[in-house]
Amino acid sequence: MSATLLQQQMQRLGVRRLLVFSGGTQWCEQQAVLFSAQIAGDWLWLSDSPPDGVTSCPPSAAQTLLGQDIFHGVFDARYGLNTEALAVFSGTLKAGSWLILLIPEWNAWPDTPDADSLRWSEQPQAIPTPRFIRRFRSLLEQDRNITVCQQDQPFDIPPLPAAPDWLPPDGQPTAEQSQILQQLMQAQSGVWVLTAARGRGKSTLAGMLARQWPGTCWVTAPAKASASQILNHQTESARFIAPDALLSLCREGAVTDIDWLIIDEAAAIPTPMLSEIIAAFPRVLLTTTVQGYEGTGRGFLLKFCASLPRWHDLRLNSPIRWSSSDTLEPFISQLLLFDEHLPVAEQTGGTSEIFSIDADDWLSEPALLEEFYGLLTSAHYRTSPLDLRRLLDAPGMTFSASRQKNTLTGALWLVDEGGLSAELAQEVWAGRRRPRGNLVAQSLAAHAGFPEAAVMRSRRVSRIAVHPAFRRRGIARDLLAAQKQQAGLDFLSVSFGYTSDLASLWQQAGFRLVRVSMQKEASSGCYAAMAILPLSAAGQALADRAVHQLERDWRWLAPQMDLTLPLDTTADTQPDDADWRELNGFAFAHRPLESSLPALSRVLLHSTLPLTALRAHLQQGQSVAQVVMSLKLSGRKALVSRWREETRQALKAAGMAE
Question: What is the pTM of this model?
Fold first, then answer.
């Protein structure tokens, strides 16, 4: 069938199709250019290396396309496959569109280094991603609606099977939208949570509410561009305010006489911020995408919404921007496991058996992959396609799970850390090197002052999840306890957004709190905390020293943070050997002020030197700008140099300069 007839059929049926060109880089590009020349459309290229004369966007900027309607596109995966960008791009293509995918030569593809792996593999060079690619190829081969055109092989694009003609939206609300809109228009108070996959019209529905509501509506979203569909419908009664600005207004008590707050893509906003904002409004509509590229709506419902005192669960199921016969959406959903795969709880009594998982099991047991990943998305609603790629192909991963009869009840994912040479660990401590990976091990060296942590062998808990029907039975504790038997490890570690509940959970599992950052995480709105579970004598000694150091430092850190910790702060204030070592790192290397702050504060208490710049900031509470101005310095960089010089003076006066 000719390209023109195929295009007419796709538009009549309201579907989108995937066409794959596999071969040499130049051949793939030529085929895409030739095919797109036959059919009128936008033909946007998502590529870092697009041909001359085409409209293009780099995959890293794919999020800027959300809210747009694009007619036909080319996704360039010849050098690397950014799965989030592929998902976003497919979601922007309207009914009747072709998505052309360019990939390397078919047989060589699994062993071809993928440039996108640099984002998630924690390796210095791009690595092949054979498991993800083999699974991708298998799904392409199984789907009869997808044509794979390989270089030097004949191909034909078959017509689609018969299906009802599609009636495009006419601007009026659908039956589903009308029913939900009626509920919202009658709402007296409460939180309403609207979840839907892409293309279901949830943002359009929120815009209808803003337009029809007789009073005032405010709109917020992680980025104003993501709320464009809502704002397109706005009247003078609707106003967009960024989340951080909105939070400030709430804290100032400046939110009055606002009938509705509409929060678009709510799952992408830190939960502490979300909770505080919601409490200031009588009616709130949260929208979030079930098949999210920034997180998953299923986990958002289970983790955040379930904690709300009163909320209403709203769903939009039927697609609007394309027909229910669409061929592209189900393929992308299956490829990236967007559909809900939470295992069905057949029986909740009895005990669970713990077993280890080899990465090759993901391909030989596809149901296990779906269930394991389903548990992760139900427990961690920021799980994204990037996590799926890491799970399948990143090196240094360890997996285990628990099962009761035929139900997967728990999932544990750990990442190997440590093993750095003593020389490299010392460079990390000094602030001169930060190699990829080793989140906790490097942080304990670079920030907490324990370079030996980066030399020791450890594993970090990347994800842990328990089936909702089996929680509070010690399954997470048992999964972690099984890891204690692993030979050659010095400790297990975990990094988490600090809350008293989470800290208690990890403490019950035997983990000891060893570090709390001074800055809040953008994703969680909490301070990043790190805890370790010692497994060897060396690990135990590290934990003892780190816990002691945190307790000793907390007196000086607490005033800088909005956080209360159950720590003993009565330790003596006399500088010790660890302090002098820390100050040598600050004075003569590149250790940051934040890491050296407690040691500096203790030295200032006992030093008789003027140390004007240090005392102004650390003892008198002057801001960086104030100290710079009073000392007539050129800026922060000059101030840091002054701080380091004054620290050298203190070390020499005490006879502790190395």
Answer: 0.89
